[in-house]
Amino acid sequence: MRICSMAPRSLLLAGACLGILTYGAAAQQPASPPAAAPAAQPLPPGSPLIGRPDNEAAAKLAPVAPPPLAAAPDKLPLAKLKVPAGFNIEVYAAGMANARSLALGDKGTVFVGSRLLDKVYAIVNKDGKRTVKVIASGLYRPNGVAFKDGTLYIAELSKVSKIEKIEDNLDNPPKPVVIYDNLPKDEAHGWKFIAIGPDNKLYVPVGQPGNNVFSDDAHGQIRRINLDGTGAEVVARGVRNTVGFDWNPETKQLYFTDNGRDWLSEDVPNDELNRITKVGEHFGSPYCYQGNIPDPEFGWGRSCSEFTPPVGLMGPHAAALGMRFYTGNMFPKSYKNVIIVARHGSWNRSNKFGGDVVAVHLNKDGTVKSIEPLVTGFLEDNKYVGRPVDVMQMKDGSMLVSDDWNGAVWRITYGKQKVAGQ
Asked: Nearest to residue 341, comparing CAs of 359, 355, 327?
C-alpha cells in the first residue's frame, strides 16, 4: 500500500512523509536488549553465606564482625552484665583485641589467644597489679592455647607450636617452635581450641571446611597427639566445629561443644554438648544434627540412630564455645562439677540467641539435667555489647571469661568481693 507520494507538494507534506517513513522503519527494528546485570561473584570456598536462602529475611543475616580495636576501659559494658544473687563480676584485664582462648600458667599467668589477629597475650598478675604483654606475634589465627609443665602450646590454623619456660621469659620470649603441622589449611572452621587431657596428650580439633559439606578423612574430627607432636590419632568423627572441650573430673570422659549447621532453619538445629565414651565414635555431621534431624542433603539413606547422640542441646545457633567443669570451692556446692559454657551468640538468626555464660547441670548418667544462666547482658536489643568465648577456672575458684568483642577478660566470684587473686 502506498502510504504517501513523494511528489513535492510542499515542504510540510515532505516533512510529514519523512516522519512517517522514519517511524515505520524504526518500528520494524528489534528493541534494544536491556543491559545485562553484572554477574554475581562466586563465594569463596567455605564461605558461611553458601547455602543462604534467597529471601529478604535471610539476606539480612551474615557473620557479625567484631570491633577492630579493644574497648577502652571506660567503655566496657560492666554495668550491663548480670549474675545471680551472691555472685560478682568484674573486669580482670582489658586491652587485648580479639581475646579468645584461655590457659593458666603454673605461676598464675593467664595466656590469651586471638583468632583474627596474629597475637598471643599474657596477663601478668604481680603485687595485685595486672599488666598485659604480647608474648608472640606474626602468627596466623593463634586461637588455641594450652599450658603444661612450664610450656605454652599454641594452635594456629594449620600447625601447633610450643614455647618452653615461657613464664621465666615473659619479657623476652623465644619464638614458638613447631611440633605438629599435619593439619588442613581451610579457613572455614580452621581456628582451633586445644587442651591437654588426663592422658597427658594434646587434643586438637579439625572442623568441617564449610557450613555442611561431605569432606575427606582429614576433617570433622578431634585428634590427639603426644606433647612432642608424635603419635597422632583420631578420637572422634562427625564433629562439625568444636571450639571448647574438657574432661569430666569423675569419669574422665571428654565432653565437647559442637556448633550445628547453618541455613536449615532459624530454630534448628541446636548446638550440641557431646561426650566421648570410646575412641572413634561418630557424632553425626554432616548426616545428622542434634541427634534426631537427618540432614536434607546428606541424610538420605542414613539414620540418626547410626551416630552417637548428644548428651544435651545448647540452643539454636547459640555458638556454644569454651567450656570447663567447675571443680573449685568458691562457688556454692550446687556448682561442683557443673559445666560452665560460654555461648558466643548467633548470627544467622533474626532474633539472636545466646551471648551469655551458662551453668550446665548433669544427671547421674552424665546427660544434661538443666541449663541455668550465669552471666547475661552481652546481648541487648538484639545487638551485642559483648561476646563471651572461653571460660577458665582460677586457683582460687573464681572463673574467667574472655570476650573477643571488647578485647577483655571478665572475672566471676561468689560471696563478699575480695581483691582478685590467683
From this structure: 359
